């Protein structure tokens, strides 16, 4: 389930409804070695996980973080975008007025029209828009674009950015790697590209390669007053998100590289310097880079054995060792043990804001009936865990979003037809 998982999950669910599958729910520190046969046709009603989670909205909606604390949005491929606040009563319509602006993105010589809907929160505008080829037959090469309106990072100066992602498979992802950075002047209603596009290469689809200028929501919140962006332009396109250079944001023909060939996309700039991961002799290391008198020096902070992408998972500033079940904070060195289960095949790690609880999830494999059986482990720092292993536990591309220190949200199919999906909320209890 690697492409448009939330949309194609329908077909897997149809198979699940006609097959006998195995279901396991455990609240022990170590799950049973083998699932227990349920001997019944699987349905959401028979799912133990259905009793453990709460739908985030009646009728099903997939909520994504808007980028402002407590605000979320729901969208579809017809550009129906709604904004919500998370209150004690749950997700409620945001009270702010929803406005719409029409923008045009210049990408690979194509003019992509997008209607961006936005609200103003604490004096700043934030919103999103969706383009598909159904909306305009004049756009070549691009059948989809997701655009997010955000305030410029402090180092970029005043104004707004439009971050564009052209990968439809990422539509429901809360962790997009955006393919293009546009500057947007709301008063003049003009869109411009500051970064030089000279020597930008074309991919097999006749569009600019995605690796030229990249940004993530996490990166924006982590660079402070630095004027930086990410790029994998000097590496193979398949290495996007795996090998990254950090560059100064400017109109220079060749922007200055301030951190070269880092592993992954983790980067934090604070008063202590720039923090990132680099390859090391026996694995990789976390480093702090400090610039003084125009010269930058790197200091090794922690060393790690093994392969970053195969043996570890990252969530924010936390790095999770799948073999040991231990997570370490890359900035502070704090450690939390989430052991008690075999996490070697885990695909997702997401930790709570206070670092005491975590979700470890497995995409799973098809059983003998061809039905994908996933697994989710909700664990806390006391090694108490709740384990669920069933078909269709979560939509892989949407990930897990923490609403507070005890509640985490993910997306799941919302009815047995598989035609709909919605966000669900899992809340840790004191017994875990």
Mean pLDDT across all amino acids: 89
How far is the N terminus from the C terminus?
A: 30 Å
Alpha carbon gyration radius: 22 Å
User: Which structural class is indicated by helix and strand composition?
Assistant: mainly beta
Percent of residues in beta strands: over 45%
Number of helices: 4
Low-confidence stretches: 1-39
Principal-axes geometry comes out as globular
Reading side by side through the largest sheet, how are the strands ordered?
9-10-11-12-13-14-15
Into which percent range does the helicity of residues fall? Answer: under 10%
Nutshell version of this structure?
The chain is mostly beta strands and about 425 residues long. It is about 5% helix and about 45% strand.
Give your account of this protein's structure.
This protein has 432 residues and is mainly beta. The protein is 6% helix and 45% strand. The chain has four helices and 33 strands. The strands form eight sheets. It has a seven-stranded antiparallel β-sheet, with no helix packed on it. It has a five-stranded antiparallel β-sheet with strand order 2-30-29-28-27. Strand 21 (283-292) and strand 22 form a beta hairpin. The chain is globular and about 60 Å long. Residues 1-39 have low confidence and may be disordered.
Blueprint of the fold:
Elements: H1 5-17, E1 20-22, E2 24-26, E3 37-41, H2 48-52, E4 53-55, E5 64-65, E6 71-75, E7 81-87, E8 90-93, E9 99-107, E10 110-121, E11 124-132, E12 144-151, E13 160-165, E14 180-185, E15 190-192, H3 217-222, E16 228-231, E17 243-248, E18 257-263, E19 267-270, E20 273-280, E21 283-292, E22 295-305, H4 308-311, E23 312-315, E24 318-321, E25 326-329, E26 335-337, E27 348-351, E28 357-366, E29 372-380, E30 385-391, E31 401-402, E32 407-413, E33 421-427
Antiparallel strand pairs: 1-3, 2-30, 4-33, 5-6, 6-7, 7-8, 9-10, 10-11, 11-12, 12-13, 13-14, 14-15, 16-17, 17-18, 19-20, 20-21, 21-22, 23-24, 24-25, 25-26, 27-28, 28-29, 29-30, 31-32, 32-33
